[in-house]
Structure formats: structure tokens, C-alpha cells
Amino acid sequence: DAGVTQSPTHLIKTRGQQVTLRCSPKSGHDTVSWYQQALGQGPQFIFQYYEEEERQRGNFPDRFSGHQFPNYSSELNVNALLLGDSALYLCASSLGGGSGTEAFFGQGTRLTVV
Amino acid sequence: AQKVTQAQTEISVVEKEDVTLDCVYETRDTTYYLFWYKQPPSGELVFLIRRNSFDEQNEISGRYSWNFQKSTSSFNFTITASQVVDSAVYFCALSEAGYSTLTFGKGTMLLVSP
Which pLDDT score, from 0 to 100, does residue B11 have? Predict the structure, then answer.
């Protein structure tokens, strides 16, 4: 049973560029959440998708957008990249997304903006 | 708004020592969930435990134990007889009623030397 898979594992982008990160949830899971983890910090919630709609959003600018596909996989898009967007981006999947639901995390995508 | 504080940035112990990782949380909700995750160098967050706010029973799982005290808003994690493989960053997290999104602390890096 494959867990949460993310791609790519690493990438380097230039300021002002756009980037798309991808996530395939754990088999049977229908909810995908994205988190940003800066170096030395805890993960911060970006947004959550359920049934192809953004259900909840954290305190991130509109440059961060996402999408969920009918097969529950998800993309995170970041436009007009800033140096401060350099971080580990983690995808988490869960079933239903209700209170206290256990979230399973992928290994993350390490984004470096230069 | 909810908040999780892990005051210990880094802890170094020698193998076989016991170690306790502290976690203090803030929330206005009466129903909430607390979690501990382990993050090895690979980056993936590994789920360790979940507790709901109505269950203050301490829990033991092998060498791991958790002490939940609502009176002090703390959810501390103890590793007994630590091993080198326990070296990782440990995160405490909180989710409130109705949501599965997590608010993380900044993490505690545990270094266990032989």
C-alpha cells in the first residue's frame, strides 16, 4: 500500500518564477492538506482540499493556490516566487478530514528559490 | 487562536538515558486533539500518538509514554532508555473541533549519542 507520494523531491527556482508541486494521497484517502515548513520551524498549514474544493485556508497570500483532481491527487502552485518561499512543502492525506483525523505525510518537496 | 509551544529547541542525551519533551498548548475550544509526530532526516512526518481533550489517561507504548494534563495545558512525551534511532525532530500539534488541520510547535531536535 503506497503511502503519500510527492514530486519532485527537490527543485530550484528563480525569483519571480512559478512552481507546481504534486501529491498523491494514501490509497483510500480523499482529503489533502498542504503545509510549508521553513528551516528550523514547524510546518504551517497552507490549505486543505476535499471533494475537489478548497475547504480551509491558512494565512498564506493568493500567490499560493491549489487544485484537487477527481482521483484525489493534488497540486500546489506558487506564483511570483520570493526568496522567502524556500522551504520544505509537505502534503498530508486523511480520510474525511474531520476532527482528530490522523494525517499521513509525504516526504516533502524541498523548494529553493534563488 | 490556537498555539503550541515547545520550549526545548534541542536536547542531547546519551543512549539509554530517559528524556522528556515538553509541549504546552493554548486553545479556546473544549474539544480538541493533540498529536505527536516524529520527523527523521528524510523529512516525512511520522505519526506517534493522538489524544482527545476528554481523555486524560496517560498512555504507554513500548519505550514511549505520554502525560496529558489539562490543568496545565501540557502534553509531554517521554522516551525511556533512548536509542540512537530516536534521534529526530519531534513535533507536538493541535487540531480543534471540526477541523483536521494541524497547528504545530516549532519542534524539539533530539540527539541521542552512543
Answer: 98
CB B70 within 8 A of CB B56: yes
| Residue A58 to residue B39: CA distance in whole angstroms | 22
**pLDDT single digits (tens) A16-54:** 999 999 999 999 999 999 999 999 999 999 999 998 999
Q: Which residues of A touch B97 (CB under 8 A)?
A: 99
3-state SS track over B41-58: CCCCCEEEEEEECCCCCC
Beta bridge partners of B67: B76
CB within 8 Å: B43 and A90:
yes
Q: Which residues in chain A have their CB less than 8 angstroms from residue B106's CB?
A: 40-42
Partners of A13 in the β-ladder: A113
Q: Which of A41, A98, A107 sits opposite B100 (nearest CB)?
A: A98
Please give the mean pLDDT across all residues of chain B: 93
pLDDT at A1: 63
| A108 part of contact set with chain B, CB < 8 Å | yes
